[in-house]
Amino acid sequence: VFLKSCNNGFFEHNHHGHHDHHDGGKIDSAKQLIGEALRERVENIDSESCEPGEEDTFFVADLGEVYRQHLRWKRNLPRVKPFYAVKCNPDPKLLELLAALGTGFDCASKAEIEQVLGLGVDPSRIIYAQPCKTNSYVRYVASQGVRQMTFDNADELRKIARLFPGAELFLRILTDDSSSLCRLSLKFGASLDSTDSLLALARELGLNVVGVSFHVGSGASDPGAFLKAVQDAHVVFQQAASHGFCLKTLDVGGGFCSDASFEEMAGVLGAALDEYFPARSGINLIAEPGRYFASSAFTLACNIIARRTIEDVSAASYMVYVNDGLYGNFSSIMFDHQHPVAKVLRSGARTLYNTPAAEATDSVDGIEYSIWGPTCDGIDRITESIRFSVLLDVGDWLYFEDMGAYTKCSATTFNGFTNDHEVIYVCSEPGAKALLGLP
Ligand code: PLP
């Protein structure tokens, strides 16, 4: 469902701390569009009479936000072409927009590659960026003409020599990922001690090494990690030359956040690239951002399905149970070390989205809640303690912003709950609408 823009004056303005990089007016109208979609979807659902599933959790995705992130990338890292990391959120409309914007795609499996090829994307715009690949998938990509792939060890090189000797190989190197949310270097990446012998082996096997890749860890927070990784990559480019390889591409991986830290990261990375891989070197620069594009575009709405009152001498507090949790779209709490913050979408018959009353309050006068998921497991808790000025009850709705990255894709069906929730699409940018052929 695509919604048109709205302006009914219903939603009050709000401040939006982490969106300072954007034009404020645009954000206000984007919020209005998202708010309208949320309100339209929930206002007629009566938990006393609705059918099972009608009150299910759902997303509102603003594709305009993806478009703004694309422009922001081009402003900050104009030389680096993004290959969106599909694993982060394989939403079909998100992929369609990115394909139309001309990005490449980082895929980790046959299914992801199939999905991207299905959009009509040329195989040269795909990198199979999984250093430890499934044999049959390697044969599959060979048959589809997807040539770019990463490796970081000798066994993988021998596998590729057997199954796809014509592949275009990126040597993935180890990074210092200690400042990131999700560390990857325990599992992947060749240390600088081993790169020389790997390049020698690739030579001996007659393989085609075309570049170097790295990943500083997902949710990285130390820009110094990018500088060090670029320096190390530069060393490996020289090693490769001494083995007779003429490397063409540096892949700086993912790890970028969508908050205000992006400009700082991009500043340090851009300066390092200008120093070690200047434009005159003719080296192509690519990246594999996931979270950066997906996170802020998706807002999640959950219904309060049950409430337990905790009587206390001073004041009552409440445990509220919503119909999504750690085994669902809040899998990001477990796997991605996130702390999603609840806001009140609808309480009683009032829609509070993007108003001061929707926000948690620090005031001790606020009513205290803990927020729990719907499964029978005690770890399924979204928030230990939060206060709102409004009294919440069964049938009310909460919403959570920035829920686009590593959420739906890692949700399970534990306890028989669906993990395939509806996504309502809106688009707050005319440029993105035009690309998608929308009115
Ligand atoms: N590339 C690779 C190889 C990854 O493993 C990941 C995430 O795990 C990404 C890219 C995307 O990372 P991010 O979402 O932090 O940009």
From TrEMBL:
What keywords is this UniProt entry annotated with?
A: Cytoplasm, Decarboxylase, Lyase, Polyamine biosynthesis, Pyridoxal phosphate
Q: Pathway it belongs to?
A: Amine and polyamine biosynthesis; putrescine biosynthesis via L-ornithine pathway; putrescine from L-ornithine: step 1/1
List modified residues, type N6-(pyridoxal phosphate)lysine: K87
Cellular compartments annotated: Cytoplasm
- The record's active-site residues are C376 (proton donor)
Q: Does the keyword Ribonucleoprotein apply?
A: no
> What's an example GO cellular component term for this entry?
cytoplasm
| Domain Orn/DAP/Arg decarboxylase 2 N-terminal, first and last residues per copy | 63-294
The EC number(s) attached to this protein equal 4.1.1.17
Q: Tell me where on the tree of life, at the top rank, the source sits.
A: Eukaryota
- A GO BP entry: putrescine biosynthetic process from arginine, via ornithine
- Assembly with partners or alone: Homodimer. Only the dimer is catalytically active, as the active sites are constructed of residues from both monomers.
Member of which family? Belongs to the Orn/Lys/Arg decarboxylase class-II family.
Q: What is this protein called?
A: Ornithine decarboxylase
* Source organism (scientific name): Thermothielavioides terrestris (strain ATCC 38088 / NRRL 8126)
